[in-house]
Design a protein that fits this description.
The structure is a homodimer.
Chain A: H1 10-26, H2 32-39, H3 44-56, E1 60-62, E2 70-72, E3 82-91, E4 115-119, E5 132-136, E6 151-156, E7 165-170, E8 175-184, E9 187-191, E10 200-203, E11 209-220
Parallel strand pairs in A: 3-5
Antiparallel strand pairs in A: 1-2, 3-4, 5-6, 6-11, 7-8, 7-11, 8-9, 9-10
Helix pairs in contact in A: 2-3
The first copy, chain A, binds a DNA duplex (30 and 30 nucleotides) through helix 3.
DNA sequence: ATTATAATTGAACACATGTTCGATTGTCAA
DNA sequence: TTGACAATCGAACATGTGTTCAATTATAAT
C-alpha cells in the first residue's frame, strides 16, 4: 500500500540554502527558474513541487501568484537571530544591582551605547524573554572570571536552582557578587567560577537577594595602542 | 534657462519608506505597480521615473529587467548585523592552535554547532573581515580570565602591537596561551588578563608564534540542574 | 509670454514568471 | 509481479511585471 514516504533529501536542503544565499546576495528572493537552475532541476513544475512540500512542512512561506514570492519561514530565517538587550547600569562590589521594573516595558533607548545585541543562537531556547545587561565595573567580580568592562547578560530572577550562576546582593555586607549558587540545609554556598578560588558560605540567617541569573558573558577585547 | 531643479520631494521619501516597509513585511521587494499604488502614482512609467532618480542618487539599487529587483542601498539599509564565525577547533594548553588556511575560503558548515553568530555591533569596525573562533578546553587559559567552554573569537594575525590580546604558540614549550602582548628590546612580555597574576617574560631567543588577535570572548552560562 | 525642462499620462510591448496538466518513470510495499 | 504513490518531465498557458515611447501638462527661469 504505502509506497515510500516522502523524504527530505539533500535537494530540499540545497533549495533552502540557495534561497537564503540568494536573498542575502541580491536583496530579493529567487524565481522558481533560478532555483531550478541552481539545484539542477530542469522543469519549473518540479521546483514548484518541491516548494509546495517545503511550504507544507513549514520551512518556507510563499506568496502564491507572486513573482519571487518565496522566503524562508520565520523559524528558519534570521527573524529571531538578534536580541537587543538593554544595559541598565553597572554591577560593582559595593553597589546594589539595578533590575528592570516589573511594570515598565523593558524599553530600549535607540542609543547603541545602552544596549548590546546578542545573537539568539548563543542563548539556550529557554533563556529567551526579558533580559537585561550590566557592565562590570572594577575587579570585584574577578573571582567569577569576569573582568572590568565585561558585559553580563542576566535574566531577571529572585530564586535559583543549584548550579546556576546568579547575581546576588548581600544587604548585610552591602556587597554584590556573581557566583554559582548552591543551597543546602545549612544555608548557601557561593562558588566562584574560578575553580582555584574558595567558595563562600552564607549562613541561613543572613539575608541574600537573588537579582538575576547569568545567561551570557561577553568580553570585547579592544585593541589598545601601546 | 534652468527650469526648476529636480527636488527630493516627500514622494521620494515615501517610496523609500514603502520599499523598506514592504520588504520587512513580505520578505521580498514590491513591484513597480505596488509602489505606484501605495504612493498614489497611477502610471508605472512615472514610478520608474522616480526609481531611476533614486537609483542615480544612490538611495536604492536596482536589478534591471528583474521583477521586484529593487532594494534599499546598503548605506540606508541596516548594514549586515550578523556575523557567522566558524569554530575551527579547540584551544588548549598543550595543543597547537588551528588556524584557517589562507587559500581555502573560510567555509561554513551548515552545522550550527560549528559556528557562532556574532552581532556585528559587538565588534569595532576595524575588526571585520575573516574571523575564526576556538572553543577553550581546560583550565589552562584561566590566567587570561578565560574558562573551560568559553569561545574566543580571533582575527588571523602573525604579528601584534603592544597591548593586544593574542593567541600564542610557544614551540619550545609546546604550549598555547592567550595573553596581552608586549614587545621590548629584551624580548616579549606576556601579561595575563587577570591583574593579580604574574606576567611571563620570553627572551628574545625563544621562538614565539602569534596565531591571531583576540577580538571577543563569549561565555554561555548554561544553567546546570542540581 | 516664451522657453526649457520637469512631471505626468496612457498605452502598448516584450518577456519574466507562477501555475496547470497530462504523461512518464522510479520506487517501495504487499 | 503489481498496485500505489512519489518523482520527474515537457509543454502550454495566463498573467505579473519591467520597459519604452510619444504626447501632454505643470513649473520655474528668462
Amino acid at each position: 500500500m504505502m509506497a515510500r514516504k516522502p523524504k527530505f533529501n539533500e535537494r530540499h536542503q540545497k533549495i533552502l540554502q540557495f534561497i537564503e544565499d540568494y536573498q542575502k546576495e541580491h536583496g530579493y528572493p529567487p524565481t522558481i527558474r533560478e532555483i531550478g537552475e541552481h539545484v539542477r532541476v530542469p522543469s519549473t513544475s518540479l521546483v514548484d513541487y518541491y516548494l509546495k512540500r517545503l511550504e507544507i512542512q513549514g520551512y518556507i512561506e510563499r506568496a502564491h501568484g507572486v513573482s519571487r514570492g518565496v522566503r524562508l519561514a520565520r523559524s528558519n530565517a534570521q527573524e529571531r537571530s538578534m536580541f537587543r538587550v538593554p544595559i541598565l547600569g553597572v554591577i560593582a562590589a559595593g553597589q546594589p544591582i539595578p533590575v528592570p521594573e516589573a511594570g515598565q516595558t523593558t524599553y530600549l533607548t535607540d542609543d547603541e551605547s545602552f544596549a548590546v545585541e546578542i545573537a539568539s543562537s548563543l542563548l539556550p531556547e529557554a533563556e529567551r524573554g526579558p533580559l537585561f545587561a550590566l557592565e562590570v565595573k572594577g575587579d570585584s567580580m574577578i573571582d567569577a572570571m569576569i573582568n572590568d568592562g565585561d558585559i553580563v547578560v542576566l535574566k531577571p530572577a529572585v530564586e535559583a536552582r543549584n548550579g546556576e550562576m546568579v547575581a546576588i546582593w548581600l544587604p548585610q555586607r552591602e556587597e554584590t557578587t556573581l557566583k554559582y549558587f548552591y543551597k543546602d540545609r545549612d544555608g548557601y554556598l557561593l562558588k566562584p567560577a574560578n575553580p582555584f578560588m574558595q567558595p563562600i558560605r552564607i549562613p541561613k540567617s543572613e539575608p541574600l537577594e537573588i537579582k538575576g541569573k547569568v545567561v551570557l558573558v561577553v568580553r570585547r577585547v579592544a585593541p589598545v595602542a601601546a
